Predict the structure of glutamate formimidoyltransferase.
Amino acid sequence: MIECVINISEGRDFDLVDEIARAAGSDLLDVHRDADHNRSVITVVGADAPPAVIKAAVQRLDLRTHSGVHPRIGVVDVVPFVPLEGSTYDDAVDARDEMSVWISNELHIPVFLYGPERTLPEIRRGAFTSLLPDLGPTEPHPTAGAVAVGARELMLAWNLWLSEPDLDLAKSIATSIRGPGVRALGLQVGDQVQVSMNLIDPLNVGPVEVYDRVAASAPIERAELVGLAPQVLLDAVSESRWEQLDLSVESTIESRLQHRANGGV
């Protein structure tokens, strides 16, 4: 099975986000909405759900009217495919490539690929300047922009909100923890600041280690899981710290897959 984690550039109009997410039908696992980032993460499985959600987002969203603190290149900003149990990374690459062709041919939107070729941060730095799209038009779509379609292993999208609204400190912390297993940004989010992270190797550089490193530099108000976490990550963390790290069995991929298998009951 392949998981697809679709990041769309809308997080303030909850009804609109839910309308887009419903295009996935019974293959919808999770919706995470963020009004300050003006971004939502829609997690789905199956072959039919990704194109349905992507098409719905392109039809309903307009990048020209979008504002938010998170970097983005399109209304459907990032579409990673992730192998779950029974699938391989090569399967995820195949799913990525098939979806990329569909997006460029059917929706006429430029597509940047990441995975074996390059990282997502490289696309963010170079899109339409030093880096041309891999498929589709060479210029951004007038309302949809472009899409970064990727293949990756399981990771943890995770934010730490600092107690004090010191943006320079958040940026400094992000720089200090950034490395092969951690991608991090310090962001102003409303009246607060956060260290926004992707833990790309969470079993080796996990939330406990990162939380404690950040806490050594600044008081933390709360943690926030974005999307879902793999059960194996919870198994590697003492249950006494789950609440502090915003982890729970209910927010695991496995729990949502079981709910789906039970017909949503």
The domain at 2-151 is CATH 3.30.990.10 (Formiminotransferase-cyclodeaminase; Chain B, domain 1). The mean pLDDT is 96.
